[in-house]
Amino acid sequence: MKRVFQKPYIYYFLLIFFLYLLINLLLSGFYKTVPLIIIYVKTVSWFKLSISLLLSLSIGFLVSLTSVLAFIKYKERKQCKEGIALSGVGSVGGLVVGVCPLCVAGVFPLLLSLVGVSFSFASLPFQGMEIQILVLVVLAISLYILNKK
Question: Could you tell me which residues come within 8 angstroms of residue 84 by beta carbon, excluding any fewer than 6 positions away?
Answer without folding.
Answer: 70, 74, 142, 146
